[in-house]
Write a structure and sequence with these properties.
Number of strands: 13
Number of helices: 2
Order of helices and strands: EEHHEEEEEEEEEEE
Strand content: 25-35%
CATH topology of the largest domain: Jelly Rolls
Largest sheet: 4 strands, antiparallel
Strand order of the largest sheet: 3-11-6-9
CATH architecture of the largest domain: Sandwich
CATH superfamily of the largest domain: Jelly Rolls
CATH class of the largest domain: Mainly Beta
Length: 184
């Protein structure tokens, strides 16, 4: 433990008292200034290294926004379920809805997608889709000549929530004859 030298009014600890700092004058400032510069330089180097690392990653990783949407209606998501689904050529999903917000990306093939009351969209590999909760899906059909695969994400408010509700079938034009039967 450092001892204080009370007799001459100056301490002999690492941190000097006011009289010792005045006595040391510029020497204390001269010692502290390089230390501050070194600390600032070190922090800047760390920052540059982190920025350079991020820049290096950005050069080798490409990010593309496939879908940006509001969740409607607003919900409290407590769990999620992700499924990969493959449909044979000509297969149609039955008219349905999801009791939770649902979104996905087509991995391969071609899907004709239609939310009831809206215009049909043809989705190809890399295209994303969003199905709001409790909104009827009129078409989700593989209208291509190959298998269609997509990955779907269900945003659930409870883990055991069903992900799909099949609705009574209504015939509509241009719908292929085969129907995909799913287990909820």
């Amino acid at each position: 433990m450092d001892k204080l030298n009370i007799t001459n009014g100056c301490c002999r600890t690492r941190l000097r008292c006011a009289p010792a700092r005045r006595k040391a004058g510029r020497s204390a400032i001269i010692i502290m200034k390089p230390l501050r510069i070194a600390i600032v330089s070190f922090v800047c180097c760390l920052s540059l290294s982190a920025e350079e690392s991020i820049q290096s990653l950005n050069n080798s990783i490409k990010r593309s926004t496939l879908l940006a949407t509001d969740i409607s209606p607003a919900t409290s998501v407590t769990s999620a379920k992700i499924q990969q689904i493959t449909m044979a050529p000509g297969v149609s999903a039955p008219r349905h809805l999801h009791p939770c917000p649902t979104m996905g990306v087509v991995v391969e093939g071609e899907i004709t997608f239609q939310i009831e009351g809206e215009k049909e969209k043809v989705l190809k590999a890399g295209d994303a889709f969003y199905e709001p909760a409790n909104v009827k899906i009129a078409r989700f059909d593989n209208t291509g000549k190959k298998h269609a695969t997509f990955v779907v994400h269900y945003l659930l408010s409870k883990a055991d929530q069903p992900t799909i509700k099949i609705l009574k079938e209504e015939k509509h034009q241009n719908k292929p004859n085969k129907t995909l039967h799913t287990n909820p």
